[in-house]
Amino acid sequence: MSHSESNIAIKVKNLVKRYNHILAVNDISFEVEEGTIFGFLGPNGAGKTTTISILCTLLSATSGNAYIAGYDCTKYPSEVRKSIGIVFQDSTLDKDLTAYENLVFHAYLYNVPKSEIKNRVESVLHFVNLYERKDELVKKYSGGMKRKLEVARGLIHKPQVLFLDEPTLGLDPQSRANLWDFITKLPKEHNVTIFMTTHYMDEAEVCDKIAIIDNGKIIASGSPEELKKIVGGDVVSITTKDNLYARKHIENLLKLEVLEKNNELYMTCNQGETCIPDLIRSLGDKVLSVKIQRPTLNDVFLKLTGKTIREDYAPESNSTKESIRAYRRKH
Ligand SMILES: Nc1ncnc2c1ncn2[C@@H]1O[C@H](COP(=O)(O)OP(=O)(O)OP(=O)(O)O)[C@@H](O)[C@H]1O
Ligand SMILES: [Mg+2]
Q: Are residues 123 and 220 in the same domain?
């Protein structure tokens, strides 16, 4: 590893993964700096879990290279495994053991020195706020508690890189907010680099850098702010009595590009405030409602792919947004 790369925790170069005729990962390259949160975003089947599995040495690449903490994932799998913690989409906790027993078992598996096990287990239990419930069987835990315990488990051997594949999948908004509160503390408090995947665009706001993957290809990358610049203005959305008519009018008269999603028409205006009166003037009483907002990451995705990240995308709850805002205020 050259000196200039010493602060790169993850490096992926021209990575390809083919499952028979399916090209799941199609020549992707990226780097993740130490102590940062990297978000890998994309719709179902985009290639996120496949990429994570290669980085975690659970799957071999068809071609290309991946490095964790400077170690080649193919040549030094055991070094890579020592450097990483994993929280997967599907839970792998032993439900017939207590939380405490699960963690101790995992510590043994990862060769944590015996004299340190008790301390480490207790400290991660405190960190995720489960210390009081440590002696309950995991099968009695709620979904949110299980996820937290899995994150705690992923930290037991003090990994340099923590992989989180859809960490909040299936959680209610409050548990999601809660989980994010401590995930975002990890880089500072444990000096961990985080690689996470999510479908939820609002969750990705906490990332230092994001790569958007679609059909196995990275179609954009940058900080959330950089990505939002791709949208290039305010997003105005309207509902009308006659979308076909409205669409034609907006495209012809206002020279704006219109996208239709869930019966709403979306367009980007340099200045939403002046665009709205123009819209209403030209469409008259055909307009039913108008909304204006600063671009979100979901708008970026819509702009790049013509689809929302989840076709059933629904705006996220306020509690998640609040938690994310609180996080950003602190940084
Ligand atoms: N073991 C496998 N054998 C064959 N094809 C697979 C296998 N695993 C994944 N695929 C295919 O590879 C593509 C990428 O899948 P992957 O699981 O990486 O997507 P993903 O981005 O994690 O999706 P999701 O958001 O649904 O978790 C999909 O077309 C999927 O069907
Ligand atoms: Mg997946």
A: yes
